[in-house]
């Protein structure tokens, strides 16, 4: 298994604080460290963190991730990409096509037992799986499922159901998903000029791949992309409501 963490977005907190949100400390741990620690029970072959070259040079991110786990390394993104899907493709040569893959965002905190989640996806016989939560806010991507619980459509920034995507992707074969990402880009299937990861699932669906979902409780998913969201998360952590 490989875990690909996307941390190359423009996410500095304020002009006075040059550190990306995912390098913020919460209860003595970096946000990125909390995420990688939560994923550790999966015992991945490697963690690959896609990070801006400027952040790597300024904040020594490669040193940080290697201290968190000796299995971790970074992929430097030297210039802005056309979206998260293009960023993910920059790691294609680091990952074997026939290995499992997990993709997630560095700024998201998901409070679940990841080993249990992955085992449920494996046991279902699915080719891929996503975590969902209840929302109608158009900042998210959304999935539509059929009567048998299979994903039949994914839409970015457009609510097509109440099942919003939490930004966690499990793929049985990494190669299938990288092929889907490339096909999506070749089709120019962008949203407002950017290529997102979620719509690539539509390419897998067209190939008769089975994608399943697991729903999260209301408080299990915490997107942290702004100082306000970080402050709220810090408050919850101090109160013992977040792990």
**Helix/strand class:** alpha/beta
The biggest beta sheet, please? 7 strands, mixed
The run of helices and strands is EEEHEHHEHEEHEEEEHHEEH
Beta-strand level of the residues, as a percent range? 25-35%
CATH superfamily: Spore Coat Polysaccharide Biosynthesis Protein SpsA, Chain A
End-to-end span in angstroms? 24 Å
Number of domains: 1
* CATH hierarchy class name: Alpha Beta
Average pLDDT: 92
Q: Helix fraction?
A: 25-40%
Rounded to an integer, what's the Rg over CA atoms?
17 Å
Strand order of the largest sheet: 5-4-1-6-11-8-12
- Uncertain regions: pLDDT < 50 for 5+ in a row? none
CATH topology: Spore Coat Polysaccharide Biosynthesis Protein SpsA, Chain A
Number of strands: 13
**Overall geometric form:** globular
Number of helices: 8
The CATH architecture can be named as: Alpha-Beta Complex
């Amino acid at each position: 298994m490989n875990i690909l963490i996307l941390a190359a977005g423009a996410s500095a907190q304020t002009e006075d604080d040059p550190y990306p949100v995912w390098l913020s400390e919460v209860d003595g741990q970096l946000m990125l460290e909390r995420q990688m620690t939560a994923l550790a029970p999966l015992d991945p072959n490697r963690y690959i963190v896609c990070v801006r070259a400027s952040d790597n040079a300024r904040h020594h991110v490669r040193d940080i991730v290697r201290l968190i786990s000796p299995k971790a390394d970074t992929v430097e993104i030297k210039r802005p990409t056309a979206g998260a899907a293009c960023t993910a493709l920059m790691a294609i040569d680091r990952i074997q096509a026939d290995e499992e893959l997990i993709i997630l965002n560095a700024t998201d905190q998901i409070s679940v037992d990841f080993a249990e989640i992955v085992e449920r996806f494996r046991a279902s016989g699915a080719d891929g799986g996503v975590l969902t939560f209840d929302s109608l806010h158009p900042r998210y991507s959304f999935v539509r499922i059929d009567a048998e619980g299979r994903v039949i459509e994914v839409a970015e920034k457009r609510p097509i159901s109440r099942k919003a995507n939490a930004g966690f992707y499990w793929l049985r074969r990494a190669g299938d998903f990288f092929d889907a990402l490339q096909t999506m880009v070749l089709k120019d299937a962008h949203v407002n000029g950017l290529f997102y990861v979620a719509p690539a699932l539509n390419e897998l669906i067209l190939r008769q791949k089975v994608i399943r979902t697991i729903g999260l409780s209301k408080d299990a998913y915490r997107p942290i992309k702004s100082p306000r969201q970080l402050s709220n998360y810090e408050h919850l952590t101090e109160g013992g409501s977040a792990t």
